Design the sequence.
């Protein structure tokens, strides 16, 4: 089965397994062998396996702020709250303290996402049954609203590293769930281009990190090649140039800008052209990196191939002594072929 634009669902799994190394663990192997009707069913299966694994290790706990009315003082006294209790002739004290608890944002997101998936029509009954069993172990965890989660502010460390994959899956699901007015049930939209673009960018970087560490893959920031000294007040107005993937070896550099769009090419009076904003962006990256104008820095726009669209996969342009190219990565093929396309890029630029 495929998702929008003809991407094999199992290739979404492979991309996730590179983006999040947790998926390479044995617990998840059976997921790949299962047939999935849609990408959200795949997400539900990954979530079920991951949560089950986490429950065996124990849910992550951290200190969370708690406010509670108690007969004896614990932690810090909430003066205003205690005065309010006294006015009601209560003998209790309003206390504020930190409690080492599993009722934290990480587990709240897991529980709420499972709750929503259980109530959708697009998830297989078998997957719902698994999620319902796991849901019972989250009795001490609150349900929350996912709409305003600051996903980028969630931090991962040694004690909750396994949550990174699971919460990214939850983020993808939250972006594509709509609540209907009919019995409070949820329905799923298609997996959005924005989510696919994030996954696509991370997959390419992590693929090269795992298979070509000799190229020192990174998502490096490129500094503006300013020709004279400027005060910091002016420099702060310059936008940041952050690459998706930067590869370098023996004095040669390749900057890859990964693009996932409904249509890779722009059309003007039926004439197909590269998108000017993309070309200007990669050109700026290359020229500001190649400060000595050596020509040893190349740029590549790497588009995810969209279904049925023609694309000029030819020789790169030479612009101002630098190679600027554009290619597509066909995700509607077996993963071995996708890996072969990525290897061809290395062979071409680092012969």
Sequence:
């Amino acid at each position: 089965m495929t998702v929008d634009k003809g991407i094999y669902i199992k290739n979404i799994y492979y991309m996730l397994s590179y983006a999040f190394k947790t998926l390479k663990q044995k617990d998840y192997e059976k997921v790949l062998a299962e047939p999935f009707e849609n990408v959200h069913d795949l997400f539900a299966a990954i979530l079920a396996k991951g949560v089950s694994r986490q429950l065996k290790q124990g849910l992550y706990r951290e200190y969370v702020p708690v406010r509670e009315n108690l007969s004896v003082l614990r932690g810090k006294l909430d003066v205003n709250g205690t005065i309010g209790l006294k006015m009601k002739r209560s003998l209790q004290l309003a206390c504020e303290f930190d409690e080492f608890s599993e009722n934290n944002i990480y587990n709240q997101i897991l529980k709420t996402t499972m709750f929503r998936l259980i109530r959708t029509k697009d998830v297989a009954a078998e997957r719902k049954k698994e999620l319902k069993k796991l849901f019972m172990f989250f009795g001490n965890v609150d349900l929350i609203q996912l709409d305003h989660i600051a996903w980028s502010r969630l931090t991962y460390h040694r004690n909750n590293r396994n949550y990174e994959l699971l919460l990214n899956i939850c983020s993808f699901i939250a972006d594509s769930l709509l609540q209907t007015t009919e019995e409070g049930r949820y329905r799923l939209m298609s997996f959005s281009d924005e989510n696919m673009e994030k996954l696509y960018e991370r997959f390419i970087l992590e693929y090269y990190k795992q298979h070509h560490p000799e190229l020192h893959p990174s998502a490096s920031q490129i500094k503006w090649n300013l020709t004279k000294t400027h005060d910091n007040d002016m420099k702060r107005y310059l936008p940041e140039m952050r690459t998706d993937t930067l590869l370098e070896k023996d004095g040669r550099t390749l900057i890859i800008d990964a693009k996932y769009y409904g249509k890779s090419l722009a059309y003007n009076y039926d004439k197909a052209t590269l998108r000017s904003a993309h070309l200007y962006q990669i050109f700026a990256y290359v020229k500001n990196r190649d400060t000595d104008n050596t020509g040893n820095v190349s740029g590549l726009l790497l588009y995810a191939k969209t279904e049925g669209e023609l694309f000029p996969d030819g020789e790169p342009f030479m612009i101002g002594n630098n190679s600027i190219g554009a290619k597509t990565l066909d995700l509607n093929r077996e993963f071995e072929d996708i890996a072969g396309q990525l290897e061809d890029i290395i062979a071409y630029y680092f012969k």
Summary: The first strand starts at residue 2 and ends at 3. The radius of gyration is 25 Å. The mean pLDDT is 86.
